[in-house]
Design a protein that fits this description.
Radius of gyration: 14 Å
CATH class: Alpha Beta
Number of helices: 5
Helix content: 25-40%
Number of strands: 7
CATH architecture: 2-Layer Sandwich
CATH topology: Alpha-Beta Plaits
Strand content: 25-35%
Structural class: alpha+beta
Distance between the termini: 24 Å
């Protein structure tokens, strides 16, 4: 089974944010993904919505046997298991969240569907906190 190199961004701005991110990483590993590298944690203001809750963010490189859509389904399941209710693609806007996991890169794949865009252009080119986290990963 081939392993695909994937760059993820994880963030939380509800509850114990750092513990939420750590639990999400554990759940990713428990789902059969190998976490090979993580960035430092970065605290940041919410982007594209107003909230008094600060985000705890981290970048991670994983190796996975899953296809992009299988990985997205795995990630969405983890988010729901952890208590995430609103998905920004469904609700049409951003809100506070217990966990958010985004696929930034998947090998060198260029992919676009209603559910997924790889590479994740907003994180690569528009968001300052993402550029800080991803500087050593892309």
């Amino acid at each position: 089974m081939s392993q695909h190199k994937v760059v993820l961004l994880l963030g939380s701005n509800l509850g114990e944010q750092k513990k939420n991110v750590e639990l999400a990483l554990k759940k990713l590993k428990d789902a059969g993904n190998n976490i090979s590298q993580t960035s430092e944690y970065l605290m940041s203001e919410p982007v594209e919505f107003v909230s008094s809750n600060i985000f705890c963010n981290i970048a991670a490189i994983i190796f996975t046997p899953l296809s992009p859509i299988q990985l997205l389904d795995c990630i969405k399941n983890i988010e729901v298991e952890m208590g995430r209710i609103n998905d920004s693609k469904v609700s049409g806007g951003y809100t506070d969240r217990i966990i958010d996991i985004d696929i930034i890169k998947y090998n060198e794949l260029n992919f676009q569907s209603e559910r997924l865009e790889i590479p994740h252009k907003k994180h690569l080119f528009e968001r300052d906190f993402s550029r800080v986290l991803l500087k050593d990963f892309i």
